[in-house]
Every structure is written in structure tokens, then in C-alpha cells.
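Dear colleagues,

As part of the handover before I leave the project, I'm documenting each prediction I ran so the next person doesn't have to rerun anything. This entry is a single chain, and its sequence is reproduced below.
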Amino acid sequence: MRYYELLYIVQPHMSDEQLKEFMSVVAEKIKSEGGEILKNELWQKRNLAYPIKKFKQGYYILVHYRAPAATPKKIEEFLRIKEDILRFINIAMMKKDRKQYEALEKKEENG
């Protein structure tokens, strides 16, 4: 399995409860496609560099996950149909960025 990083921006009108629910929906989709969530954190509401769908702000959410190679494409298809998503980027993590997760995995295996 490979390591991936997903960053997505959600519309700013969502309440804290709605944000947490939306984050759990995305996490469940990753898990249902055979992935494992390593980090799922809400950054904060930030100003956008330019308006997107007439919004000037949005909530940034970062997800690190481990999944089979086919999963990122399915996650991207899922995010494209969600109206609350302003933008997203889903990339494979570079080797230097995933070392911390690989070290934790080895530690768990050894003891």
C-alpha cells in the first residue's frame, strides 16, 4: 500500500458539527475503499487567494492515509460530486514525508 496526502477546502458556511460529520464521511469513504486513515485534521478557516464559487474563505482539511493504488482515483471521483468542496488535491507522499508513518508501523510490528 502507498501513502497519500489529501487536502481539501470546504465552504465556509458549515458549522463545527457539519464539518466534523463531513470529515467523517470522507474518512469512511477512504476506509471503505481499503484505506487506513493516519491523520485527519481540520486546520482553520482561511482566506482564499482568489474567489471560488463566490466564496472568499474556506475551511482547510488535511488527511494522510495509506491505501491501495486504485483508491485515490475513487476518492477524487467522490469529492468531485460533493457540492461543499471548493477545491481538493490528492497526491502520493514523498519518501521523506512518509518516514514518520513507516517508522511507527515498524515499531508496532516489533513490539
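The chain has a mean pLDDT of 90. The two ends are 21 Å apart (CA to CA).

All the best with the project,
I.
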